[in-house]
Amino acid sequence: MRVHARHGHADELIDHNRSRLFVSTGGFFTETMQRISRTLCLTTLFFAAGAALFFTKAAVIPYKVAYPVLLLSLSLFYLRLKPLIPVGAALLLSAVGDAAGAGGMFIPQMLFFALAHGAYMCYFLPQAQVAPRPFVWPVLTALLLFLFVCIVPRAADPAERAGVAVYGLVIAGMLYSALQYRGAYAAWFRLAALLFVFSDSVIAWGRFVAPVPCRTCVVMITYYAAQYLFYLFAVRAAHVRNSGSGNSFS
Fold first, then answer.
1. 147 within 8 A of 162, measured Cβ to Cβ
2. pLDDT at res. 244
3. What does the pLDDT look like over 7-59, one tens digit per residue?
4. Phi and psi torsions of 12, nearest 5°
């Protein structure tokens, strides 16, 4: 009888602990979801304000072009989710590249953005499809033809010519990895990558070939949209991926 009583008491303790674990785990994920939602809302608000500030000519603020993307990067690091590290690094490097561009340093700007694209590739490639999708090669071929037929030969400075060629190959690699990505929200990531490539193509055309009407608006609207899409859907994909594990930096 005592044995049965002990067993019954042990079973009650196990059930009680399981209930407590379930409640505490559910509370943890509820709190995490709320923190992510609050962070997304606030970041979106301040990102939009920063982008509007950039387009406000009366606001003379040094390196203001870099602040919106820097905010996105800091927001990702604040969330402390391991899958977001590559995207956070990519956004941080992009912000440094923006600051270099604002300072008129074209080659350092390309360097930092090339590193940013490398970080994006680190995010996409682990979940990339091995066999190329049917539309990937035509898109990459068009991009490389545009780069090496229309842009690289027009760069008069040898250093810039080499830098543009290398940068073009890197951004082509980023585009390939995004097009091959098959994780959550893949279509949105592809859109972001295409917008990024389009923005940089307009920059290259305006710098080396011919003036582009409303160049700043075209470049920056597509660029900011691309970076925000990378940010937004990286957060959503990380939440989907980690909803069962609760991975964080710590």
1. no
2. 53
3. 555 555 545 555 454 444 455 457 777 888 899 999 999 999 999 999 998 88
4. -65, -40
The pLDDT > 90 percentage for the chain reads 75
* pTM, 2 dp: 0.85
| Dist. CA 232–CA 47, nearest whole Å | 12
CA-angle at 226, arms to 182 and 217, nearest 5°: 155
In the numeric block, the tokens 């409640």 are attached to: 23
CB-side neighbour CA atoms (13 Å) of 203: 19
Residue pair 123/90 in contact (Cβ under 8 Å)? The answer is yes
Residue positions counted in the chain: 250
Averaged pLDDT for residues 173-195:
97
The per-residue DSSP string of the chain comes to: -HHHHHHHHHHHHHHHHHHHHHHHHHHHHHHHHHHHHHHHHHHHHHHHHHHHHHH-TT---TTGGGHHHHHHHHHHHHHT-GGGHHHHHHHHHHHHHHHHHHTT-HHHHHHHHHHHHHHHHHHHGGGB-SSPPTTHHHHHHHHHHIIIIIIGGG--SHHHHHHHHHHHHHHHHHHHHHHHB-STTHHHHHHHHHHHHHHHHHHHHHHHT---TTHHHHHHHHHHHHHHHHHHHHHHHHHHHHTTT-----
